[in-house]
Design brief:
Length: 275
């Protein structure tokens, strides 16, 4: 993403974004309280934070087979673990949000596009250990590294599939018994691919499913994909957090609603006692 696009899109987002004080839906208000603004530190956070620091210091090299929109940071196909951990892996605060999301929603079936080193996978899997998380990674050496991470962490609810999303997806969806409660789209940040994956997963979504799209402002194409997803007739509620977007299909939401949301700390003057 160009710097100019990044600054312009963030300013446009920020200008329109509201805080929880403008939210009327009890469902959304509770989601904000329990997930988006919850600052409790869960025991797993400390150990995954230590793992992240180890990864960020590792000079071990992996050969990358890039099947997605690539990296804004590196075009090299041999990269250190440290470089991947610093650029491709979701930041700690976002991983913690994913943990709280799966903990709160308790999805039985979870799917992740883009495992990378496996950090986001671990947060989501530990968020709801009773659910099953299938994660897909197309770069074989990266996938093998993530597999080692899952073994070391003793996570029992992760199935790692190695291969191109396009090849893996039909078989995975067929094996789901018709239902997908939670999807994290975090690989191949191209407009067409993102829309294709959304359409492929859609028939498996029900009233309580949530789809999470990472990096919705990554490029003009990703932003167009996000706008198209928002307009889909089965989508009833979206929450744009800038760094990711949440999509809900709840029929209780009679009028479609699309919110841009920031924490109250980002717009402190919106707090009740100042208005
Ligand atoms: C942004 S990284 C995922 C980061 C990870 N979710 C995290 O936050 O820790 C995206 C990953 O998706 C993989 N990927 C991209 N396009 C793919 C495709 N078409 N098929 C399979 N894997 C793909 C890349 O190899 C890369 O490791």
């Amino acid at each position: 993403m160009s710097k100019a696009f990044q600054i312009k899109s963030y300013l446009q987002f920020y200008r329109k974004a509201v805080t929880r004080y403008k939210v009327h839906s009890p469902f959304l208000f509770q989601l904000i309280e329990e997930v988006l603004e919850d600052d409790r530190q869960y025991y797993i956070f400390a150990s995954l934070s230590a793992t992240r620091k180890q990864l960020q210091a590792s000079k071990h090299e992996l050969t990358i087979k890039d099947l997605g929109a690539g990296s804004h940071v590196s075009n090299s196909n041999v990269r250190t673990i440290a470089s991947i951990a610093k650029s491709a892996v979701s930041p700690e605060a976002q991983c913690q949000l994913l943990f709280r999301l799966t903990q709160y929603l308790k999805p039985k079936t979870m799917l992740e596009f883009g495992t990378s080193l496996g950090l986001s996978t671990l947060y989501q899997a530990f968020g709801h250990t009773q659910g099953q998380l299938i994660t897909m990674e197309g770069s074989p050496q990266v996938a093998e590294f993530a597999r080692g991470m899952f073994v070391n962490s003793k996570a029992k609810n992760i199935q790692l599939k190695t291969g191109n999303f396009d090849d893996l997806l039909p078989e995975i969806l067929k094996g789901l018994a018709g239902k997908l409660d939670y999807v994290f789209f975090d690989g191949n940040h191209r407009k067409e691919a993102t829309l294709n994956y959304f359409e492929a997963c859609l028939p498996y979504a029900d009233n309580n499913s949530v789809f999470v799209f990472d990096d919705i402002y990554w490029s003009p194409g990703m932003l167009e994909a996000w706008e198209t997803i928002k307009q889909h007739p089965s989508v009833t509620l979206t929450v744009d957090l800038y760094y990711m977007g949440l999509v809900f299909f709840r029929k209780e939401q009679q009028q479609p609603e699309h919110m841009k949301l920031v924490t109250q700390a980002a717009k402190p003057w919106t707090m009740g006692f100042w208005s």
